[in-house]
Design brief:
One of its GO terms (molecular function) is thromboxane A2 receptor binding. The chain is mainly α and 257 residues long. The protein has a domain at 196-256. 80% of the residues lie in helices and 0% in strands. It is built from five helices and no strands. α2 packs antiparallel against α3 and α3 runs antiparallel to α5. The longest helix has 75 residues, at 182-256. It starts with 20 loop residues before the first helix and ends with a helix.
């Protein structure tokens, strides 16, 4: 008597080829690695000067985009502040019954002050950019000067029994040193002159911008003083109007009695 037989005993085992999370992660990592390697190959084919030019160009474009974004944000804030101020002034004038001419004049003065303040902020940003360029130029000149001063010799750490270069400096080292530093002596003044010209131009622009900033700040202070005077006069007129309205109301109340 034979026992029960398993119908699936003769089937071949089948491997589960479904994707799990580790396989998906491995595929993504492989594709990312391939992409990185392809980018590295492309970058390695580009010269250092071209890479530096592209980097500086992208850096300047990034600065311009940030400046444009700041301008738009300042413009939005200024328009919102102006709208709130106009609404408040309109409500106050409606309560006091004041004249709209004075209100319009105050708004024009405040707009002029805001425009001057925006110019001052823009000039300060330009001043910061020029200072950054001045620092970069100084660092570049220092780096160029450091590259053009190589070591004349390297002293050995192991005692080989030979005489040191300082002890036996013969006639051959003199001409070689002269030949080695001859080109440097020719190119260094040109580089220094060019760098000094750039530094002087940047310093001149910074001084001009600082003068303009001081002038704009002086105008802003004068306009702010004038605005305070006009606001004081406006408050005095509002008080006079309120007193006259109270007197009229009291007179109407006595007439009705």
């Amino acid at each position: 008597m034979s026992g029960p037989t398993d119908e699936t005993a003769g089937d071949l085992p089948v491997k589960d080829i479904g994707l799990n999370l580790f396989d998906v992660g491995g595929l993504q990592e492989t594709s990312a690695t391939r992409t990185m390697k392809s980018h590295q190959v492309i970058v390695s084919r580009i010269s250092r000067e071209e890479l530096e030019d592209r980097f500086l160009r992208l850096h300047d474009e990034n600065i311009l985009l940030k400046q444009h974004a700041r301008k738009q944000e300042d413009k939005i804030k200024r328009m919102a502040t102006k709208l709130i101020r106009l609404v408040n002034d309109k409500k106050r004038c409606e309560r006091a019954g004041g004249g709209p001419k004075r209100l319009g004049r105050d708004v024009e003065l405040e707009e002029m002050i805001e425009q001057l303040q925006e110019k001052v902020r823009e000039l300060e940003r330009q001043n910061e950019v020029l200072k950054h360029r001045l620092i970069s130029t100084k660092q570049h000149l220092q780096a160029q000067g450091g590259r053009q001063a190589p070591y004349s010799h390297v002293q050995s750490r192991v005692n080989t029994g030979r005489r040191k270069a300082s002890d036996g400096a013969g006639a051959q080292d003199g001409p070689r040193k002269g030949i080695r530093f001859q080109d440097v002596d020719v190119d260094q003044p040109m580089l220094t002159k060019y760098g000094n010209n750039l530094l002087e131009e940047a310093r001149g622009e910074i001084r001009n911008l600082e003068d303009v900033i001081q002038t704009q700040k002086g105008q802003i202070e004068e306009l702010e003083q004038l605005t305070e005077i006009l606001k004081t006069q406006l408050r005095r007129k509002e008080n006079e109007i309120e007193l006259s309205l109270l007197q009229l109301r009291e007179q109407q109340a006595t007439d009705q009695r």
